[in-house]
């Protein structure tokens, strides 16, 4: 078979991206390159794969053996041997099942490492930073809600899919979800995504929108116990800012007692 694949900048970039992604699934660089080359060829000999993948021919066979063990490649015992990749959809499904199996196993064994004799200190307050981390922590707090979620937010950047889903799931469980925001686009988005929530306008923590540098970006209280407050914060890089937050899941933390009446009044009244 003659290799008719000609160099193309766009294709080369796509190949690099796929190879890099496959390596996160515990494929070696050669294995990933061989699988990508074989996907492009659909089937081929070791020489053809070597030419397309730019992998030494001496490494093709051990790479193919590893890919066959993973179920990603079939082998025809002809002379010369020929190799065929599973379809892209099959490959994605197989890797997804592998990941799910590992995560299920981790979910089973990881809790066993916890010490039942050790409890967290009363009233502990934690800090964190990063837009994704703050959004994920908000989602985790909402997921644990039993009765009530009071949530004020002034920036759409924190409204990740996991948080939106957690808010919607909470209302489905019968949790009373009240959301306040100074921004009409945020309120409209949340009202559409979480139709059973009570979405109101509130300006308690903000003087204008878009918010000023250093302003509070979100406040969330769950069941009157867990609390998270995030703010816009400058970094050492000019013009670059990030979200920083303090949070606690302990009702004994003094900040919870201080914030509970303010948050409830500010959001529920829309003031």
Highlighted features:
single chain; alpha+beta; TrmB-like; Endonuclease, Chain A; 271 residues; 20% strand; 9 helices; Tscrpt_reg_TrmB_N; 10 strands; Arc Repressor Mutant, subunit A; 3-stranded antiparallel sheet; 2 domains
Explain what this protein looks like in three dimensions.
This is Sugar-specific transcriptional regulator TrmB. It comes from Haloplanus aerogenes. Pfam families: TrmB. InterPro entries: TrmB-like, Tscrpt_reg_TrmB_N, WH-like_DNA-bd_sf, WH_DNA-bd_sf. Residues 22-88 form the Transcription regulator TrmB N-terminal domain. The chain has 271 residues and is α+β, with helices and mostly antiparallel strands. It has 2 domains: 11-90, Winged helix-like DNA-binding domain superfamily/Winged helix DNA-binding domain (Arc Repressor Mutant, subunit A, Orthogonal Bundle), CATH 1.10.10.10; 126-269, Endonuclease, Chain A (2-Layer Sandwich), CATH 3.30.870.10. The chain contains 9 helices and 10 strands. It has helices at residues 9-23, 29-41, 46-53, 60-69, 88-109, 131-143, 161-172, 184-193, 254-269, and strands at 43-45, 73-76, 82-85, 126-129, 148-153, 176-181, 198-201, 216-222, 226-234, 241-248. It has a 7-stranded mixed β-sheet with strand order 4-10-9-8-5-6-7, sandwiched between helices. A hairpin with a 3-residue loop joins β8 and β9. α2 (29-41) packs across α4. The longest helix has 22 residues, at 88-109. The model is unreliable at 1-5 (pLDDT under 50).
């Amino acid at each position: 078979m003659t290799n008719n694949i000609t160099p193309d900048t766009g294709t080369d970039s796509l190949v690099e991206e796929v190879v890099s992604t496959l390596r996160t699934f515990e494929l070696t660089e050669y294995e990933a390159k061989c699988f990508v080359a074989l996907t492009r060829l659909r089937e081929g000999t070791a020489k053809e794969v070597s030419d397309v993948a730019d992998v030494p021919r001496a490494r093709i066979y051990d790479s193919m053996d590893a890919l066959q063990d993973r179920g990603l490649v079939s082998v025809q015992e002809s002379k010369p041997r020929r190799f065929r990749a599973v379809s892209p959809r099959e490959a994605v499904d197989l890797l997804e099942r592998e990941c799910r199996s590992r995560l299920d196993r981790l979910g089973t064994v990881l809790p066993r490492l916890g010490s039942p004799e050790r409890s967290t200190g009363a009233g502990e307050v934690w800090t964190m930073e990063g837009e994704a981390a703050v959004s994920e922590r908000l989602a985790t707090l909402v997921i644990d809600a039993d009765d009530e979620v009071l949530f004020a937010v002034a920036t759409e950047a924190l409204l990740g899919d996991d948080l939106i889903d957690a808010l919607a799931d909470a209302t489905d469980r019968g949790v009373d979800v009240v959301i306040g925001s100074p921004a009409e686009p945020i309120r409209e988005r949340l009202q559409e995504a979480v139709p059973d929530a009570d979405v109101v306008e509130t300006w308690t923590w903000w003087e204008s929108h878009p918010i000023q540098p250093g302003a509070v970006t979100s406040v969330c209280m769950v069941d009157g116990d867990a609390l998270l407050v995030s703010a816009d914060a400058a970094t050492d890089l000019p013009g670059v800012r990030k979200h920083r937050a303090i949070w606690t899941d302990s009702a004994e933390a003094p900040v919870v007692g201080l914030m509970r009446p303010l948050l409830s009044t500010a959001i529920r009244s829309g003031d």
